[in-house]
Amino acid sequence: MSGKHKIISFKILLAFNCTIPVLLSSCSQERPAIDRFTLVNRHNIEITTIDSLNSLSVGNGRFAFTVDITGLQTFHEYHSKGIPLGTMADWGWHREINTRGYSLQQVYRTWDVHGRKIDYVHRYSDPRDSLRYRASEWLRENPHKIHLGMIGLDFPSSDKPFAGLIENPHQKLDLWRGEIESRFMAEGKMVRVKTVCHPELDMVSAEITSSLLSERKLRIRIHFPLGVPGQTAYDFTRPNKHITEILSGTDTTVLFRRRQDDDVYYVKLYKPHSALVRGGERHLFYLEAHPGDTVLEFSCLFSKTMPVDSALPGFSVTEAVSASFWRDFWSTGGAVDFSECTDPRAAELERRVILSRYLTRIQCAGDYPPAETGLSYNTWYGKFHLEMHWWHGVHFALWQKEEILENQMKYYEKIYDKALATARHQGYDGARWPKMTDPQGNESPSNVGPYLIWQQPHFIYFAELLYGNAKSEKDKKAVLEKYKDLLFATADFMASYAWYDSTGNRYVLGPALISAQESLRPETTINPTFELVYWYWGLKTAEQWRKRMGMEQKKRYSDVLKKLSSLPVKDGVYLCSEDTRDTWENPRYMSDHPIIAGIAGMIPETPLVDKKILRNTLGTIQKVWNWNTTWGWDFPLLAMSAAATDRPEQAVDFLLMDAPKNRYLLNGHNFQDATRLMIYLPGNGGLLTAVAYMCTSGSFPRNGKWKVRWENLNSL
Question: What domains does the chain contain, in order, with CATH numbers?
Answer without folding.
Answer: 44-94+144-328 (2.70.98.50), 104-141 (no CATH)
